[in-house]
Specification:
The complex is a heterodimer of chains A (295) and B (455). Chain A has helices spanning 10-38, 55-62, 64-97, 102-114, 117-127, 136-143, 153-181, 185-193, 198-228, 230-237, 248-258, 262-290, and strands spanning 41-44, 47-51. With 295 residues, chain A is mainly alpha-helical. Chain A folds into 2 domains: 2-38, no CATH class; 59-290, MetI-like fold. Chain A has a two-stranded antiparallel sheet with strand order 1-2. Chain B has helices spanning 2-31, 61-78, 90-103, 117-121, 129-132, 144-150, 172-177, 189-201, 215-224, 231-234, 248-262, 274-282, 296-306, 340-353, 356-366, 373-381, 384-387, 389-399, 416-432, 437-454, and strands spanning 46-47, 53-57, 82-86, 105-106, 109-113, 126-127, 151-152, 155-156, 159-164, 166-171, 207-210, 266-267, 286-292, 310-313, 328-335. The chains are: A mainly alpha (295), B alpha/beta (455).
Chain lengths: 295, 455
Amino acid sequence: MSTREVFDSRREAAAFLLPTILISVVFLYYPAVRAVGLSFYNASFGRPNRFVGLENFLRLVTSSDYHSSVLITVLFAVIVLVGVMAFSLFVTFLIHEVDVGQSVYLVSAIWPYALPPAVAGLVFLFLAHPTLGILTHYVELLFGIDVNWFSNGRQAFVVVAVAAIWKQVGYNVIFMIAAMNNIPDSLTETARLDGVGRVNRLLRVYVPLMTPTLFFLVIMNTIYAFFQTFAFVDLMTGGGPSGATNILIYDLYRSAFQFYDFGLASAKSVVLFVVVGALMYVQFRVSDKYTHFGG
Amino acid sequence: MPEDGDPVTSRRTVLKGSGAALTAGATGLAGCLGFGGGGGGGSSAQPVNEDSLTVWHAMGGGLGETLNDLGSQFEEETGISISMEFQDSYENVLTNFLGALDSGEVPDFAQIDSLFAKQVLDTEAVEPVEEIISDDFPTDDFLDNVTDFFQVDGTLASLPFNNSNAIMYYNRTAFEEAGLDPDSPPQTLQEVREYSQALVDEGATEYGITWPNHVWFVEHWYSMDGQLLFDAENGHGDDPTTLRTDNETARGLYEWWRGMAEDGLYSNPGIEAWGEATSTFLTQTAGMLLTSTAFVAGAQEGAQDEGFEIDNALYPGVSDKQVGPVIGGASFFVPDGLPDDRREDIAAFLEFMASPEAQVQWHKGTGYYPIRQEAVSQLESDGWFEENPMFRTAMDQLTESDTSNPATRRMLVGPARQAQTTIQDTSVELFNGDVSIDEGLQSMKSDVEEELERY
C-alpha cells in the first residue's frame, strides 16, 4: 500500500483535492441533486413549481413512447458497442500486420475521431442525404434499395448507428494499436512457429492480452453510445422519423429544452442515470471474471 | 506481487470512478435547468444592457443585414443606442426570453415566432405594446389579418413585424419541358398530383413537389379549406381542448400526401428542413416547392443562378376552396415592468419599426409583408408590384383572404411545440403508410389532447 501514501500531510492532500471537489460539487453533484428533487415537481417557465410526487415517474412507466425509446436506446447501444469494437479490432489488426505505410493507414483510421461531433453529424448527413447525398446513389446501386431514411424509421436507425460507429472507430484504434504494439514480439514469433493462423493469433493470443484495454473501451463506448451520440440524432434525424431514433438522451433534451417540461425531463435523467449505473455495475462484475490484468 | 498489484487496483478504481462520474453528468444536465418556477418580472425587471436598447432576434443572413440596417437608421434618427443580438433561431429566442423573464434581467424586445406567442403571453410578464406606443399612433392602419392574430382581447399584445404565409413556387422551365402550361399552375392538391405525374413521367424533374415537414403547412391546408385545426376558434376564443382531425380536410390531405409519397412524386426533405426543401427545388430535383413568401427574393436569385425560370402561385387547396392563408412569422414582445424613461425609448423603436418607410424597406429587402396599409399603398403607387409580379402574388394571397373566417387565425395554444412535434411526427407515419389514415389521425388527436390537458 506504500504507493498510495504520496502525501505525508493529510492537510496538504486535502488542499490539492479542493479544486476538483469544489468544481465537481458546484457543476456536477449539486445539479444532479437538484435534478432528483425537480423530478417530483411539475416545473416549467413562468409558472410556480407544483409538487406532484411520483406523477412524472408514473407517466414514464405508462408511456408507450417512452418504452419504445428505452428499447431503441438499448438496441442502439448494443449495435454501436459491438459494431465499434469489432470493426476497430479488425482495422487495428490490419494496421498492425501491414508492413508499408502503417502511419498513413493509422492517420486515416483516426481521422473521423478528430472531427467535432456536430461537424461529423453534418458531414454524414450530407454524405448519406436521400436526395442530395454523394454516397446515396452508390448505396442504392450496391444494395438495390431505395434510400429514404427521412421517412423510413429502420433506415434512419441504421444510418445513425453507422455514423456513430464511423465516428468512434478512431478513438478505439488509438487504444487498441497501443495495446497490440505492447504485446511482446516473442509471443508473435512463438505463435508463428507453432503454426497459429492469423485469425487465431488475433483472437486467441492478442485479444486475451488486450483485455484491460478492451474493457476500458467497452465502458467508454457504452457511455459514448448512450450520451455522446446525441449530436448525430439532433442533426440528422431529430429523433425521427416517428421516434425511430429517439434515444433517451435526445428524448430528455427534447422534454427539457423544447417542451420546457423540466420536471419530466428530470425524471427521465434520473431513470437514465439508474439504467446506465446498473449497466456499469454489471459490466464491472462480468469483466472481473474475464479481464486479465497481468501480474 | 504487491508492486504490480497496486497499480492494477487503482486502474480499476479509476475506471469505476470515471464511469460513475459520467453517468452523474447526465443527471446534471437536467439539474442545470433549476431555473423553473418563481414566476416572472413584475415591477422588478432589469434591462440586460442599461446603456442601450437590446433586441433578441432570429434573423440570419440577408434578413439579419436588412434588420441591422434598420437599427442603424433608428440610431441616426433618434440618437437612441440599440443593439441587435442574433440568437440563431426562434426556438433559442424563446428559450432565452423565457429564462430572462424568470430571472428578471431582460432584453427590451424579443422577436417571438407566432407559434409560441401563447407561451409568452401565459407568463403574464410581458406588457401589451399598445399600452407602450403613443395614443396618436394609427393602430387601425395595420392590415386586418395581421392584427387579427396579434391582438389579445382587443389589445395589440406584441408588434407584428416579419409576417409571411406559405405559397407555391414552381419551375416554369420544367413545366414547359413536361408539356404543362406555365401560366396555369395547379390550384388544388388533385391538380398538383396531375402536374407532378407529368413532370416525373416526362423526366423534367425527379419529383413533383417538396416542402419542409412543418406544422405551418398543415395549418395552411386547414385554413385554405376554412377548417379550424383546434376547437375554441384555434385557441383565440378560449383554451382549446382538442385537435380537429375528424373531417374531410384532414382525410383528403393525408390520403393525397400518402399517395404522393407512395408514387414517388413527393420528396420528403425531413422535419423542419427548410434549407433542404429549398435546395431540392433549386437544384431542379423537384418542380414545385411550398415555402414562405419571405423566400421570394431568395428564390429569384437562386433560380437565376441555376438557370431556370421561376414563378409563384397561390397555395394549392385540399378542395377548390380558397378561404385564405394563416399568418406566420414573428412579432416583438416587450417585458413588463421596465422603468418609464426606458419605455419611451422602447415606444420610439416600436413606432419606427411600424412606420411605412421602415416597412417598405423591410418588404423590399426580404419579401415579408408590409404590415401597414399605408406601406402597401406606397408600394403600389411606386409600381413596385408591377415590376415584381412574384411579390404581387404573395400580396394578393394575403389581401384576398377572407379574414372574417376564424380558420385564418393561426393556432394560439400553450403547448404549441408539443402539438407541432406530434403533428409532424404523425404526418411521417401517415404518409409513409405505417398506420392507416384513420388510426394515424386518431392517435394524432389523442396525443395532442393529452398535451393540452397537461398544460
